[in-house]
């Protein structure tokens, strides 16, 4: 069994003069949760659609489960599930009938329907038509619909879109459970970068159709490292105290702020030393550079991620 | 292909649009027989050449009598059925599973064919029954072998309608939108249906109009021996229309990007 689930090499998609995807290369191994990060129009959905064969590519190669070529990819796609942007459902049908349709599309039995309805917490919807569902319920049904064909590879575009905070947590747990229990590999995108950081094992940052950075969870943690944020009205006095404590890895970020990158567990001791030296501390605590800030650093500018 | 048809069956059985279409096909003959009864009641005699259906036997010509209505109902049904798959994004569910686009297109065409068949069958049976009850079964003038005539006429009329359904399927897949598909299908129906009447007045364009199946449907008398002799020609034009429109539709759909 091939360990590489997806291998996209130099994939480009051009609309007129605009390159929606510009030589994007991504490789996904089995068991990965790959988070695609990018602003609106960065090419996340376009990339996902090319993988699913909904959009043709102008350049490059796509390999799925080790299969390439038109026929090979067509067969490999039977092992995939997808939910792109808005949940694609039949509004006039019930949840059960929607799953029956997708089971028929995939040529699989309807045995799993009850289990999936329970798994997604929508078993009680009965004869209620999908058009009367909340967005959160539709999102859950869309995920259930992708699972009916028992896929090995899931593509989820904004799966937490429209969910309330508890729904987001629940969705995160469901995705993690699917990865651990069924060994499903997941490619997902989200606008909620901090949310994505709690679930993905690998990240790809797309900007204007280009993959500007690819990194693992560990690498991202290093890049967005933790530090002690100190706010004081007497920065110069505070610096002297830090030097006396033997702390050298710090940075004065502005007239009232210092970031300390070492001895992160010593916040209480540092605070006591500052107070004893009559340094007026207005705020002290550990914090982390936000994923959004890191993203902005990479893409260089304001964004609506 | 069979899997896609199974999916279509589940969707159709729950579709209100399907039952509305069948209701129109079933009720129209009853309204028409009531209308004909009133006409006769007020002293006007029914004439086959103009009224088309005047008794149970001529009820086989219900498709000729209601050609435009049937086409509009089918056009609306196909426009919504295909357009909503694009609008709701549900087309992605099947295609992203590696289902062949050709099979997907053909499954929609098969469903359109079945709907047309069941619809016109319902209408014809209801027409024959209701006109038989009110005016008696009677006969079709100058037709010696009625059953053979009935079978040939039904098949020919069905294929004439089916060829138009095939055009509607093609338009729906190309436009990817219910409203736009409805507008173009309606324009096609009106243009080839009523435009033909104008072009048939000229010697040069008369022949061209017979490459469009609606010219046969709207401008032939299916109980007249002269037009009955044209049945093979009608079938050939219908089959060519189905093959050409489906080929164009499939080729363009296979190249299309699905949003």
TrEMBL record, chain A:
InterPro entries linked to this entry: AAA+_ATPase (IPR003593), ABC_transporter-like_ATP-bd (IPR003439), ABC_transporter-like_CS (IPR017871), P-loop_NTPase (IPR027417)
PROSITE patterns: ABC_TRANSPORTER_1, ABC_TRANSPORTER_2
Residue ranges constituting the ABC transporter domain according to the UniProt record: 6-233
One function term, GO molecular function aspect: ATP binding
Alphabetically ordered keywords of this record: ATP-binding, Nucleotide-binding, Transport
Pfam families the record matches: ABC_tran
Top-rank taxon: Bacteria
Record keyword ATP-binding present: yes
Protein family: Belongs to the ABC transporter superfamily.
The name this protein goes by in its record: ATP-binding cassette domain-containing protein
Record organism: Perspicuibacillus lycopersici
Taxonomic classification: Bacteria, Bacillati, Bacillota, Bacilli, Bacillales
From TrEMBL, chain B:
TM regions (residue ranges): 68-88, 109-134, 146-169, 181-199, 234-253
Pfam families linked to this entry: ABC2_membrane_4 (PF12730)
This protein's record includes keyword Membrane: yes
Coiled coil (UniProt feature): none
Protein's UniProt keywords contain Transmembrane helix: yes
Protein keywords: Membrane, Transmembrane, Transmembrane helix
Protein name per the record: ABC transporter permease
């Amino acid at each position: 069994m091939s360990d590489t689930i997806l291998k996209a090499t130099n994939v480009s998609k051009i609309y007129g003069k605009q390159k929606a995807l510009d030589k994007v290369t991504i490789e996904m191994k089995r068991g990965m949760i790959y988070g695609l990060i990018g602003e609106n129009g960065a090419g996340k959905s376009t990339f996902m659609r090319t993988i699913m064969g909904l959009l043709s590519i102008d350049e490059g190669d796509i390999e799925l489960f080790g299969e390439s070529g038109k026929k090979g990819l067509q067969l490999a796609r039977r092992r995939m599930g997808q939910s792109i942007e808005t949940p694609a459902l039949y509004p006039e049908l019930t949840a059960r009938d929607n799953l029956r349709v997708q089971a028929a599309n995939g040529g699989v039995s309807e045995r799993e329907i009850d289990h999936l309805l329970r798994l997604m917490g929508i078993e009680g919807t009965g004869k209620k038509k999908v058009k009367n569902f909340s967005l959160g319920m539709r999102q859950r049904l869309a995920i259930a619909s992708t699972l009916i064909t028992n896929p090995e590879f899931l593509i989820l575009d904004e799966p937490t879109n429209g969910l309330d905070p508890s729904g987001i947590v629940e969705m995160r747990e469901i995705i993690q459970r699917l990865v651990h229990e069924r060994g499903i590999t997941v490619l997902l995108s989200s606008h909620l970068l901090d949310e994505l950081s709690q679930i993905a094992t690998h990240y790809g940052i797309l900007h204007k159709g280009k993959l500007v950075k690819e990194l693992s969870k560990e690498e991202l943690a290093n890049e967005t490292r933790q530090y002690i944020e100190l706010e004081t009205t007497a920065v110069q006095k505070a610096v002297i105290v830090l030097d006396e404590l033997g702390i050298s890895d710090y940075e004065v970020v502005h007239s009232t702020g210092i970031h300390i990158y070492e001895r992160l567990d010593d916040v209480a001791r540092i605070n006591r030393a500052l107070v004893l030296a009559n340094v007026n501390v207005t705020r002290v605590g550990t914090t982390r550079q936000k994923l959004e800030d890191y993203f902005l650093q990479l893409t260089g500018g304001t964004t609506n991620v | 292909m069979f899997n896609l048809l199974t999916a279509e069956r589940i969707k159709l059985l729950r579709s209100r649009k399907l039952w509305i279409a069948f209701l129109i096909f079933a009720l129209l003959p009853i309204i028409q027989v009531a209308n004909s009864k009133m006409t006769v009641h007020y002293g006007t005699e029914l004439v086959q050449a103009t009224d088309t259906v005047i008794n149970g036997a001529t009820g086989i010509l219900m498709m000729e009598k209601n050609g435009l209505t049937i086409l509009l109902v089918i056009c609306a049904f196909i426009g919504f059925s295909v357009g909503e798959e694009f609008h709701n994004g549900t087309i992605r569910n099947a295609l992203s599973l590696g289902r062949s686009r050709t099979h997907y297109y053909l499954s929609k065409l098969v469903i359109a064919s079945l709907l047309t068949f069941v619809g016109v069958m319902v209408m014809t049976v209801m027409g024959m029954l209701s006109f038989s009850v009110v005016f008696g079964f009677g006969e079709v003038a100058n037709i010696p072998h009625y059953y053979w005539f009935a079978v040939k006429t039904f098949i020919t009329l069905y294929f004439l309608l089916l060829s138009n359904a095939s055009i509607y399927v093609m338009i729906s897949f190309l436009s990817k939108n219910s409203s736009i598909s409805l507008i173009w299908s309606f324009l096609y129906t009106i243009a080839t249906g009523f435009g033909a009447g104008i072009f048939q007045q000229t010697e040069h364009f008369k022949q061209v109009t017979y490459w469009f199946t609606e010219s046969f449907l709207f401008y032939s008398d299916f109980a007249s021996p002269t037009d009955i002799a044209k049945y093979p020609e009608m079938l050939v034009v219908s089959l060519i229309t189905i093959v050409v429109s489906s080929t164009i539709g499939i080729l363009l759909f296979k190249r299309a990007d699905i949003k």
